[in-house]
Amino acid sequence: MMTAQANNPDQPKNPMVGLQNAAGRALNLMTISVVIGLIYLAGAALFLSRAFQLTGTNSVEQPIYYALGFVFSIVVIICGVAATNFFIRSVTRRAMLLAVAVQLSLVMFSIRVADLGVPIAIIALIFTTVLGFATLRREQSDLMTNLGIFSAVLMALINILAPLNQVEIRELKVFVPTILGIQVMIYIVLMAMELVSATLRIKTTSAFLAITLVPVALLAVIQSNFTQRALRTQNNEGLVLAAVQASNVIEEFIKTNRYNTSLDASLPIVTEFVEADPYERQEAELQQELEYALSILTRSRQQNYLNSYAILDKNGRNIYDTNKFQQVQNESSQEFFVSPLISGRPYVSPIFFDDDDNPYIVFSAPIFNRDREVIGVLRVRYMAIAFQRSLENYKGLFGRRSYPILLDENFVRVADVSNPGLIYRPIEPISAANMLILQSTRRTPANALSDDETVTPYIPEMAKALRSSAPNPYFTFSDPGTTGQILTAGTAVRLSSTKWYLVYIQRLDLLAQLFEEQNRVSLLVATLIAGMVSIVASQISRILSSPIINLTATAERIAGGDLEAEAAVESGDETGALALAFNQMTAQVRTLINELEDRVKARTQELAAQNETLVLRSQQLQTVSEVARGITSTRELERLLTQVTELISERFNFYHVGVFLIDEQGEFAVLRAANSEGGQRMLARQHKLRVGAVGIVGYTTGYGVPRIATDVGQDAVFFNNPDLPLTRSEMALPLKVGDQIIGAMDVQSTEANAFTAEDIELFSVLADQVAIAILNNQLYEETNRALEESQALHRNYLRMEWTREGMQRRINSYAYTQKGVEPRPVVLTPSIEKALTTGETQVQTQEESTLTIPISLRGEPIGVIHLQEQSNAQRDWTEEDITTVQSVADQIAQTLENARLFEQTMRRAERERKVLEITSKIRSTNDIQTMIQIAAHELQQTLNASQTQVILQAAPSTPAQEPNGGNGRSGNGHQPDGVD
Questions:
Q1: Which of 575, 799, 582, 774 is nearest to 670 (CA)?
Q2: Residues 325-335: b if buried by 16+ CB within 10 A, e if exposed
Q3: Are residues 73 and 117 in the same domain?
Q4: CB atoms closer than 10 angstroms to residue 759
Q5: 375 and 448 share a domain?
């Protein structure tokens, strides 16, 4: 049998690759058993060593380590049994025994070891898959794979649910993922290189698991991170809300007492007491009246922490104090006295300490006399413990482990609800110099100099967050006031009335537990999904995708406008929750739209009356806008003027609109456009009015100002036109460009008093735009005419130049034949003549197939390209042929023109050179006769002339010198000099 297998070319060469005979499967089983035995041996040694280390400690973890070490030791023994056939000869039984032992041990491991359920489940799945196709037959390997899937899901679920106490082993958190990574790489290599004869089901399951598990894991991580961010954001927002509510109490306390102090200082009895003579103040009646008023104020304020009222005179002496022990003190150096006395405004002091280290806060306000002069200061002292008592009501506002802290400008605690013993202690170390300043000004108690953090636990993270100008108001720190320094989150609010900070903090241990629970739920869901997908992939895909498809269809219906559509809640998982949330969102949208519709309807009814008054003005502005657009897009003057008259008449319901332009002589305003029937008759007879003389149009064109006339038919001075008999109101607006009047716009209505001053302003803007458009049109036409004349002159120049060029050249035609390019006499066929005359391409396909393309230079034909088929066969010249030849013709035209200009330039340069040479020779002598002879000789040689003459004009003679009657000859008969 072994010989036959060795000679079989289809036999696998590697004994690990699915050998179906007993020897191959036994070899594979022995290899796997040895590797697994070594891994389990290392695990057993680790667990037992940990158990021995905990001997005598009464730790609850010691029995767990003993149990795991015992189980792993049993698996090592089973690996030895499976590696040999000494006890069990059947390979299948040994493989099944090894698989069951490993699965049970890993289940035990998942129950007792924390945070390793998922990697252990994947290891178990890969192990059973490899063991199945390496040691079992195909039908048995499928059963082994199902067992691996079931046990893997069970391991993951047990580890996540944690029914028993679990231990955390840091070494395994590195060791297990490493083993998993090596195992996955080996498995991928075996599958990719087809070194494993796995069934199609195993390959499909493996590929599907690889495709499914990675996205599921990533989705779990993303969802976990997103949920954590959402919870943290919600927690931060709650902290801000709690901080704002707590700070409002402090703000209200400070602002109310500052206002009350100012109000109390304005009492007449207080002013009277300060202005009174020191002897009069001791009168029982005046002092009793003051005491009675202050007692009423004390009772009306209902302040349990009000310490005393005091009245200070202008020199800072305490002339009256409800606390008799402080009445004789001089307080002129205190800020609460100096600030109101100078500024005349109320003052709020920081926290001060008296001689007994009792903290207090002072509110002071200036006392004015009838002339509004400051004559004293009213001081009100409150016990600072009021802040602590006020904030105690806000402890646990955002959870039972949340509380506020009030800090002053030096980051010293003014109130700390959770740690009252830390009040008036800083959150960061204060330098000795600053501490001495605070102590000298009684801003801190005597025992505040301690830098021992056990007495004054510091929170540097909080101080850094308060000092930073970054926009993020949130910070976290380890609360030193808790056992184990629990992580705490906080947010700060800066008080507007003082330079203090209200910090609201919350311990994050509950939030961490919530995060952990959320991660556990996400991992549990991911494990269940992975297990179900691996068993029934297609069904789970259909089940999971169906709600999403339905939800998408519902979303499309809602996007199409059907707000009554609702998503069917088919399950209670995340998809069902999403559908339920989507339905809630849709309901909120419907409610919001209904509320908006009601508001819009009510607002629309309120604005209906206002809109009616704005309709006319809106139409007017819209007409101005449309005319402006027409001005920018219309180049024809007559069309522009007609459009202006029609738009104005249509939108404003005017009887007649006309546009007059002043003629070139400036004598008459000529009607150029009108919309009415009478206006059309006036246009037909070329109606015109004398500038400055006839009607309001003549007045407007003469003086350049708008004019309005009412009941025009009764005003013969301004208007009397039988073509427009219904006119009762007329408005004429000048068309001006700068100071130049170019015409007028005439608007007539059948209603009396139809035009107002606002109409003049509106239509004046329109008239200015029309005037600019007319001027632009005239400039545009003049520019076009100049451009056409320039182009015509240039074409004429090109025609003359190329006509002369053709006359000068002997050969003006070249033909391409089989012999090459050769000159030919010019034969002007009808198509060539027509192409030269019209500049158009000539195509002929009747008798002979020819194509004649003009060679045009700036629109002027200077030649042609004439193509003709060699045979008499007809040819249809395509657009591509014509385009190609036309491109060549354009290139030839430009090239010929460049060559002509080059030759012309060279000839001019040669002429200039010869002139320069002749000039140099002439200048080489000073004798006039020699100069003339050189000039005649050089010109004769240069021009190749047969005879050259240089004639000098004789000097003019007077009548006395011309006895022969001035016949052009001198008296002595001297002739003009000449050289032949």
A1: 774
A2: ebeeeebbebe
A3: yes
A4: 17
A5: no
In a domain? residue 530: no
Which tokens belong to 288? 């009793």
Same domain, 290 and 186: no
What DSSP designation does 952 have?
P
Q: Among all chains, which residue has been given the structure tokens 């015409």? A: 743
Query: Does residue 276 sit within a domain?
Result: yes
Helix, strand, coil percent values for the chain (each to nearest 5): 55, 15, 30
| Residue 332 shares a structural domain with residue 314 | yes
Per-residue burial over 131-150, b if 16 or more Cβ lie within 10 Å, else e, is: bbbbbbebeebbebbbbbbb
How many domains does the chain divide into? 5
**Does one domain contain both 348 and 487?**
no
Is the same domain home to 865 and 941?
yes
885: phi > 0 → left, psi -120 to 50 → alpha, else beta; which? Answer: alpha
Which CATH number fits the domain that encloses residue 466?
3.30.450.20
What's the CATH number where 766 sits?
A: 3.30.450.40
In angstroms, the CA 702 to CA 667 distance is 10
Residue that finishes a domain, picked among 476, 511, 546: 511
* pLDDT single digits (tens) 447-468: 654 554 455 678 888 888 888 7
- Residue 496 per-residue DSSP state: S
Q: Which residues contact 233 (CB under 8 A, 6 or more apart)?
A: none
How far apart are alpha carbons 128 and 148 in whole angstroms?
A: 5
CB neighbours of residue 1 within 10 Å: 7
Q: How far is CA 658 from CA 379, 630, 647, 747, 922, in A?
A: 83, 17, 12, 7, 76
Torsion sign, CA atoms 340, 346, 347, 353: positive
656-662 and 740-749 strand pairing? antiparallel
In a domain, 484, yes or no: yes
Nearest alpha-carbon partner for 426 in 403, 405, 404: 405
Q: Rounded CA gap, 556 and 348, in Å? A: 61
Do 337 and 458 lie in one domain? The reply is no
Q: How many CA atoms lie within 13 A of 716 on its CB side?
A: 0
For 596, the token pair is 């908006």
Q: How big is the CA angle at 734 (ends 729 and 739), to the nearest 5 degrees?
A: 160
Q: Which amino acid is located at 620 in the chain?
A: Q
C-alpha to C-alpha distance for 172 and 537, rounded to whole angstroms: 32
Examine residue 654 and state whether it is found in any structural domain, yes or no. yes
Maximum Cα interatomic distance, the chain, rounded to a whole number of Å: 167
Evaluate if pTM is beyond 0.85. no
Token pair recorded at residue 256: 């109310």
> Which residue, of 325, 354, 387, is where some domain finishes?
387
The encoded tokens of residue 585 equal 């969102």
C-alpha–C-alpha distance, residues 55 and 58, integer Å = 7
- Bridge partner list, 641: none
Task: Name the more confident of 210 and 374.
Answer: 374
pLDDT in tens, 15-34: 334 344 677 788 888 888 88
Which range of residues forms the domain containing residue 432?
236-248+391-511
| Distance in angstroms (rounded) separating the CA atoms of residues 667 and 955 | 58
Express each pLDDT in 244-284 by its tens digit: 888 899 899 999 889 988 998 888 888 888 888 877 777 76
Which one has a higher pLDDT value, 877 or 52?
Answer: 52
Q: Quick one: which of 457, 466, 378, 445 has its CA closest to 416?
A: 457
Neighbour tally for 829: CB within 10 Å? 15
Q: Which tokens go with 10?
A: 């289809």
H-only helix segments in 266-384: 268-275, 278-281, 284-301, 335-343
- Cα first-last separation, the chain: 133
Unique residue bearing structure tokens 């008969």: 973
Tokens of 815: 């033909």
Task: State whether 728 and 684 are in the same domain.
Answer: yes
Cβ contacts of 173 within 8 Å, gap of 6 or more = 115, 116
Q: If you search the block for the tokens 């009445």, which residue do you land on?
A: 327
